[in-house]
Amino acid sequence: AAFGLEWLHQVVAPRRIGEDLVQRNREPVAIELSARRGGMFGGWLARYLAHPALLPAPFWKREFGIAAQDERGADQHAALARITAADLQRFFDTYYAPSGMTLVIVSGAPREALQPVLDATFATLPWRPVPEPRDSARLRSAETRLFQYRAGSSTRISVRYRIAGMDGLDQLRLAFIEDLLRYRLMERLRRGADKSIYSISTATTMR
Q: Alpha-carbon distance 121 to 207, whole Å?
């Protein structure tokens, strides 16, 4: 438990982010995102086909007026290359504020045994206010579904639904559906006799 606290403190402790750190992590992040460098013709064609004037409004923009990942462009490799150390430093300094964090310790260790570690780690973090919240999202359209196909190093289909005015019973139903898809359907589609997908995932975003 003490080691875990010390390690987590190193993650959130104030630091200076240099360009060498950014360069070392570009390739691992590109691999994680399956972001590949496009050729001159392929990159130009992707930017042309992904021009905002040629595409319908993405889900979050259409439903809530929020600019989400869908608007960041088709060339992920080029977008990743544009991120600088100053960008990451600004993000870290803005959002890694202790006043916006909650530390939860799940351990059998008694509090008095961990208190000295907390005093030497998290208690030393300088206090900073969290940024002001942005305007809350507002419903903009009556549409409720989006089907999206993506082709790249892998092929994906994404299905999204907007559910307005949910109550506790609706949330319970959604939790049941998520578990059903994540476990029962995953076993059949990924590990069954006739495999058809690599993975399936479900998530609920509350706004």
A: 33
156: phi then psi, degrees, rounded to nearest 5:
-130, 150
Give the per-residue pLDDT at 46: 59
pTM of the model: 0.56
- Residue whose tokens read 């609706």: 170
The rounded average pLDDT for each run of 10 residues, N- to C-terminus, in the chain (207 residues) is: 93 92 92 75 59 71 72 72 93 87 87 94 89 73 72 75 82 88 78 72 77
Please name the amino acid found at residue 182.
R
**Degrees to nearest 5, angle at CA 149 with 54 and 170:** 110
Strand, helix or coil at 142?
coil
**CB under 8 Å to 193, separation ≥6 — which residues?**
none
Return the pLDDT at 52: 62
d(CA 205, CA 100) in angstroms, rounded, equals 20
Name beta bridge partners: 156: 150
Radius of gyration of the chain (CA): 22
Query: Other CB atoms closer than 10 Å to residue 30's CB: what's the count?
Result: 16
Alpha-helix runs per DSSP H in 53-207: 59-64, 76-81, 85-95, 111-120, 168-179, 186-191
Residues in a beta bridge with 158: 148
